[in-house]
Structure formats: structure tokens, C-alpha cells
Fold:
Amino acid sequence: MKPMPSLLSPLLRSDTQGRILAALYLFPERELTVARLAQEAVTSPSTVTREVDRMVEGEFLNARVSGRNRYVRVNVDHPLFAPVAEVVRYAYGPLAILPGVVWGLKGVREASIYGSWAARLNGEPGPDPSDIDVVVVGDVDRMAAYEAAQAATIACGRPVNIRAVSTQDWREGVDLFLKSVRGGPLVRLPLTPPDSDV
Structure:
């Protein structure tokens, strides 16, 4: 199946490429196996291998083999490292950065990106999203959610809004706002950190 073109950053070939780059460029200290990278990019290892081969050939990534595993990390010495990292952070940073923000909030049972950013990732055309909207469900302190949103805004390079709602309110969905959020595109955020491959 041919990957959908990227609506979050038309400079990139696909959302899959954006996810792969985000997992590597936004955490340059990480070294990931191809299998782990496929898991984080929500794609197959064969797709990751094709993308990695192209980027290793262009010296954007470094790769090494140990046993049966191929390990990949970003080449921070490449002259285009900083500008590529900035494009990736702006377009796909929420996928890589926001899970870590959510892990730091106590009482979260579920978390999703909603609104225009989620719509673009789900293939709905439209203008570049001006901000990132996140709903966290559970017994979450609103001040902690506000502080997390401020930190995420700095990390993502654009405004991040985090709205905390109770599990009961989310489940019942009576509120018009929550009905709208639940009825629109959602991008679920994982609630546990991935195992490290470093």
C-alpha cells in the first residue's frame, strides 16, 4: 500500500517518513533498532529499512549491525541536521514529544491529540495547524496540565493546549465540546514509555 502524502509537512514524502524522522531527529542521543523504529513509526520493518537505507546512503543517519539487529541513529554532524530537525520538530514533534509530557502527568487514563493537527495526520486537507490540542482523561490536576502545556509549547515550537477532563465526563460525552472532540479525528498518545534500545 502506497503511503499517504504528508499534509503536516508537504516537504516530506509521507507521514511514515515524518514519524521515522521524529523518532530519531528529536532524540539524537537515541540509537534504535529497525524493529523498535518500526513500532514507534507505526509501520512495518521493511518500510523502515527502505527509508533508513536512503537516509544512510545520504549520510543523514548512521547505522551499525550487532548480531541480528541493525541499530540506527541520526548523524548530528551532517550539515543539514539542525534545519531538518527543526522541520521535523514543527511538523511531527507532537507525535514524539507529547507522550513524554503525558507520562509526567499523574492520574491520566487516556490522552489524545484532537483538532486540526489530528485532522491533518488523518488525511483531512486544510491549512497548517496553528496549535496542538490535547485532551487528557482521568483525575488530572488542572494546574499540572497547564504547566505541562507550557513545557510542551516550548518543546514543540508552537502552542500546545492541554484540556483535562474527568473519566466520567469523557465517557458520558454530554458536554457539546466533548461531543465535538470525540466525534472528530483523534490521535491516541501512548501512556507508557517505550523500552529503550540504547
Observations:
- The longest strand covers residues 108-114.
